[in-house]
Specification:
This protein has eleven helices and nine strands. With 400 residues, it is α+β, with helices and mostly antiparallel strands.
């Protein structure tokens, strides 16, 4: 982003302070090229084809890694990446959300990379991140409890026990994004009150991955079960006795990346609704000329712009090295709550403007509605994150 960081930016802007955000030319071209590529090479017809096959195109993902360099945007050069920031990755994820792109970009280069960067030692990052960058490793973050409802760190489902020469893990994680396609899993576990993040190969003995039938056919989810899984001590990421603070930071960055994808969903629904309103004729006029439809579209635009501001502020804040955990947590929670609400609202209004055809399988509006609903729950829904922000604002409790 062009605007230099003000002195107070690490803690967030002070009351009454205005800040101007805008992309620089390189960031604009990255976003334009991502949209062109996805429109030409993916498109919603290809999304439907991959959804019916129950997967994604590995060759397409390899192009994202090797030719487009998307998988290494937010990974430091020291770890084999390209040394950009979370802002650039958020810009690309906004476009993959717009096109509902089936790929493990969010799960591997987003959620898993964010957790590794937050928790792992420099040596571990140097070992793990290059595989994400070149696409040879597809990682999935297993964080949600077996109950299926997001509870943040409090819902860390795994239980681990440190032994003399390693660690043993048991537990169940639900709704793990791209688990069926993963080569490695990051398991969020507890040992007593301490949080651990453990790296497990997908084929390890004692680890079972079951693909789930889900509402959103454009994204693969899996249930992960560890039954007395035995791993070496080196599988535990980080060098502290308790990784709670670092893991929370990883989850917050992950939440804002999911929010960036939801922003793309909200934008696509707005564009689809406006285009239809311009061409659908009723009573001799385009329905877009009717005041009621104008109001719906204006409301959708407001949701998109609010989400855009929240998402890119959070991404910029996450990219500043001196941002406090509390400031990032509040910004990420705001972004996820705002973008979740925007995507679900706009997806519903898009169907409303289209009328009966919007709910048919043949129309694309239902694909966006399902993605909005499913992604809203990923890493916490709007209500969960609104409660986090309320707690912070009113000092009821620290951000969990």
């Amino acid at each position: 982003l062009n605007t230099p960081a003000p002195a107070h930016a690490a803690a967030g802007p002070s009351p009454g302070t205005s800040m101007h955000f805008d992309f620089n030319e390189d960031q604009r071209e990255l976003k334009r090229s991502a949209r062109r590529f996805l429109e030409q090479r993916v498109g919603l017809s290809e999304v439907r084809r991959q959804a019916e096959r129950g997967g994604y195109d590995p060759a397409l993902y390899q192009r994202m890694a090797e030719e487009l360099a998307w998988t290494g945007l937010a990974i430091p050069e020291a770890a084999g990446g390209y040394g950009f920031t979370w802002v650039e990755l958020a810009a690309v994820l906004e476009e993959t959300g717009r096109w509902l792109t089936p790929s493990p970009l969010l799960s591997s280069a987003g959620l898993a990379a964010a957790m590794i960067r937050a928790v792992a030692t420099d040596a571990q990052q140097a070992e793990l991140l290059p595989g994400i960058v070149d696409g040879s490793r597809v990682m999935a973050l297993a964080a949600c409890s077996g109950e299926g409802r997001w509870k943040g760190l409090a819902g860390a489902a795994g239980r681990c026990t440190t032994t003399g020469d390693g660690v043993r893990i048991s537990g169940t994680w639900r709704a793990v994004v791209d688990a069926p396609a993963a080569t490695d899993l990051l398991l969020l576990c507890r040992e007593g009150e301490a949080v651990r993040v453990v790296l497990a190969p997908a084929g390890a003995a004692g680890l079972t991955i079951t693909e789930l039938a889900t509402m959103d056919a454009t994204r693969r989810l899996g249930a992960v079960e560890a039954d007395d899984l035995s791993l070496p001590a080196s599988a535990v990421l980080g060098d502290t006795a308790d990784a709670s603070a670092a893991a929370q930071r990883g989850l917050d960055v992950g939440a804002l990346l999911v929010a960036a994808e939801l922003l793309g969903v909200a934008e696509a629904c707005l564009d689809m609704a406006v285009d239809y309103a311009k061409t659908r004729v009723q009573f001799g006029k385009p329905i877009g000329s009717f005041q009621a439809i104008k109001h719906l579209c204006a409301d959708m635009t407001l949701h998109v712009e609010c989400a855009r501001s929240a998402v890119y502020y959070a991404a910029w804040l996450a990219s500043q090295p001196d941002t406090s955990d509390a400031a990032l947590a509040e910004a990420a929670a705001t972004a996820k709550a705002t973008a979740s609400t925007a995507a679900f609202h706009n997806a519903g209004q898009n169907i409303q403007i289209h009328g009966g055809i919007g709910i048919t399988w043949e129309h694309d509006a239902q694909l966006y509605f399902k993605r909005a609903r499913a992604a809203e729950a990923l890493l916490g829904d709007a209500l969960f994150h609104e409660q986090r922000v309320a707690n912070a604002l009113f000092d009821a409790a620290p951000l969990p």
